[in-house]
Amino acid sequence: MSVLSFLYISVAIVLGTVAQLFLKAGTNATPVGLGLALEPRILAGLACYGVSLIIWILALSKTPVSVAYPMTALGFALNALLAWWLLGEAVTPMRMAGIGVIIVGVFLVARS
Predict the structure, then answer these.
(1) Cα 43 to the center of its chain, rounded Å
(2) Structural domain of 19
(3) What's the half-sphere exposure (Cβ side, CA atoms, 13 Å) at 100?
């Protein structure tokens, strides 16, 4: 995998993770309803998803989907760790073990 491919994939994953965190923060700040449509954090999350999609398309133009797509699992690991750090969500030992398995799996796929 080229450095450019890895960069595109990494940026797409990080933006997807940031989008999830913005959406969660937005739903924590505003009751579910029409007010969510104008909540700045929700809009920021949607914008991150939009940019992530464009970068993901660039990544797929340079990388086989059988390599690129499994790497998106890193978003689960990054999301759990950032939600723990920024939002105070619990990360149990079982969840940490699952994150470890994900990281090992992505490493194996990337090396193939």
Answers:
(1) 17
(2) 3-111
(3) 7
C-alpha 82/C-alpha 35 separation (Å) is 26
Quote the pTM value: 0.87
DSSP 8-class letter at 86: H
Q: What tens digit of pLDDT does each residue of 73-94 get?
A: 999 999 999 999 998 999 999 9
- Average model confidence (pLDDT) across the chain: 92
Q: How far apart are CA 70 and CA 61, in angstroms?
A: 16
The CA–CA distances, whole Å, from 67 to 2, 73, 99, 103 equal 12, 11, 19, 14
How far apart are alpha carbons 21 and 41 in whole angstroms?
Answer: 9
Distance CA 83, CA 25 (A): 10
**From its phi and psi, is residue 33 left (phi > 0), alpha (psi between -120 and 50) or beta?**
left
Structurally, how many domains does the chain consist of? 1
Q: What distance in Å separates the CA atoms of residue 108 and residue 112, rounded to the nearest whole number? A: 6
